[in-house]
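Batch manifest, entry 17 of 40.
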Amino acid sequence: VVDHIKVEVHRLQRLESSVLAAGGPGDERLQPIYERLEELDPATFESRAAELLHGLGFNRAMMARRTADMSGGWRMRVALARALFAAPALLLLDEPTNHLDLSACVWLEHYLAKYNKCLLVISHSQDFLNGVCTHIIRMSARTLTYYSGDYDTYQKTLEADEVIQQKKFDKEQADIKHLRDFIASCGTYANMMKQANSKQKILDKMETAGLTASPKAERTFEFTFPECRKLPPPVPHEP
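Output type: structure tokens
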């Protein structure tokens, strides 16, 4: 858990020496180096690592085991502890509650809720997102949309936005139909061609500017599973 941070500390110390040699103690590049070294605080490595591992479900005996001797699920907890221990400026977590029991999930939720840097998390758990997130990013139609608040707030805002979008879509489609019907009614009459061309220009401008997409047009997936049949009782075999 701490080995990669020890390497980081040594790198920062070498960088500090290099900057001091090149620019002296007044070099402004030293400030972020000192801040990061103070944040890492090598004197508290062991205690902080033990606190993280304990929160993720490790007891003292398990903390003393080699990672190579652990199962895949426990190795994932070690990897999560390594990421939390580093406390980067931007922490990316993809389904961090996988392989965690309930107590570890609750601990992680409380820990991340107090994370004082930028956290980007992907999770299937709505309860977890409600406890951790202050902003939600939604990707739809190759576009990212940002929402403030937890997951429940995001859902309410999204529903309200979709109602507005549907009304705008319906109005646009009605306007387009009206324009097309008018153009079609003009036929080839010479006295109507000028009006038809004018309406066509309006239609072209609308399409060039981009039409409102239907909120119901998103691709959805449905899964069906066959009913399980009753299994026959096992047949004992004599050795």
